[in-house]
């Protein structure tokens, strides 16, 4: 009986990778890298948006801080426009507003001092602020009431109203600061026959058509000429 012995080295089997596994591995790696890059991009965008929001919030705070200044400037511009309009009105219609100012001056009691006066042609209204001082035993509130009565008794003004009155001092003298609104008649103020008058006087009656004016007491009549 013959026994054969194979003395040649046995060949080992090689370990082989499945191509599909390699493809899947590469796909996972690439997907992971892509997700990482995308997340980084999103973080950058979020950071940029947050910075932009912070910048906008800062601008809003700056604008809010400037808002009172802007409102004050707008008020100043509005007042300047009103003053310009008043000046234009005074230039183009001097008689009417000269009569109004003269009448206000005549209606003021001695212990009243005006600080500002505004004529609004669009509302045919005058706004005046000032102080009434307690001088010579005259009470400030009574003086303010007298001023309103003096205005209402004229042919130019009507419906005066007291908007405010506050107690204060003019130096060491007790006084009341006041604001008065009064409407005026633009036609009467421009009428040549209606002149400003002092308080307590009545307007002179207009002469009848065709009648000769009555001579005053100062006027003298000349004697008739001798033939």
What do you see in this structure?
The structure is a single chain. With 227 residues, this protein is of the alpha+beta class. The chain has a domain at 93-190: Gyrase A, domain 2 (2-Layer Sandwich), CATH 3.30.1360.100. Helices cover 47% and strands 19% of the residues. It is built from 4 helices and 4 strands, in the order ααββαββα. It has a 4-stranded antiparallel β-sheet. β1 (112-120) and β2 (125-133) form a beta hairpin. α1 (19-92) packs across α2. The longest helix has 74 residues, at 19-92.
Q: In what order do the strands lie side by side in the largest sheet?
A: 1-2-4-3
Beta content? 15-25%
Structural class: alpha+beta
**Largest beta-sheet details:** 4 strands, antiparallel
Mean pLDDT: 81
Annotation field: number of helices: 4
**What Rg do the Cα atoms give?**
48 Å
Distance between the termini: 205 Å
Q: Tell me, what's the shape?
A: rod-shaped
- The helical percent reads 40-55%
Q: CATH-wise, what's the superfamily of the domain at 93-190? A: General secretion pathway protein M, EpsM
CATH class of the domain at 93-190: Alpha Beta
Q: Could you give the count of β-strands?
A: 4
| Unreliable parts | 213-227
Second rung of CATH, namely the architecture of the domain at 93-190: 2-Layer Sandwich
What's the quaternary structure here? single chain
Q: Give the ordered list of helices and strands.
A: HHEEHEEH
CATH topology of the domain at 93-190: Gyrase A, domain 2
Question: What topology emerges from the helices and strands here?
Answer:
Blueprint (H helix, E strand, L loop, with lengths): L18 H74 L1 H14 L4 E9 L4 E9 L6 H13 L4 E14 L2 E12 L1 H5 L37
Antiparallel strand pairs: 1-2, 2-4, 3-4
Helix pairs in contact: 1-2
């Amino acid at each position: 009986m013959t026994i054969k012995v194979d003395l040649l080295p046995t060949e080992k089997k090689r370990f082989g990778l499945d191509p599909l596994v390699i493809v899947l591995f590469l796909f996972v790696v690439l997907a992971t890298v892509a997700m990482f890059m995308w997340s980084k991009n999103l973080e950058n965008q979020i950071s940029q948006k947050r910075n932009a929001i912070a910048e906008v919030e800062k601008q809003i705070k700056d604008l809010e801080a400037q808002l009172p200044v802007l409102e004050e400037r707008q008020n100043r511009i509005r007042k300047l426009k009103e003053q310009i309009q008043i000046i234009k009105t005074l230039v183009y219609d001097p008689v009417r507003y000269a009569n109004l100012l003269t009448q206000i001056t005549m209606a003021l009691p001695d212990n009243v001092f005006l600080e500002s006066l505004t004529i609004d042609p669009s509302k045919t209204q005058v706004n005046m602020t000032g102080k009434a001082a307690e001088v010579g035993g005259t009470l400030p509130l009574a003086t303010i009431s007298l001023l309103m009565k003096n205005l209402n008794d004229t042919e130019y003004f009507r419906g005066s109203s007291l908007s405010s009155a506050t107690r204060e001092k003019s130096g060491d003298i007790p006084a009341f600061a006041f604001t008065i609104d009064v409407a005026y008649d633009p036609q009467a103020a421009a009428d040549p026959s209606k002149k400003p008058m002092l308080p307590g006087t009545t307007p002179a009656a207009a002469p009848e058509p065709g009648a000769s004016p009555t001579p005053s007491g100062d006027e003298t009549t000349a004697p008739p000429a001798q033939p």
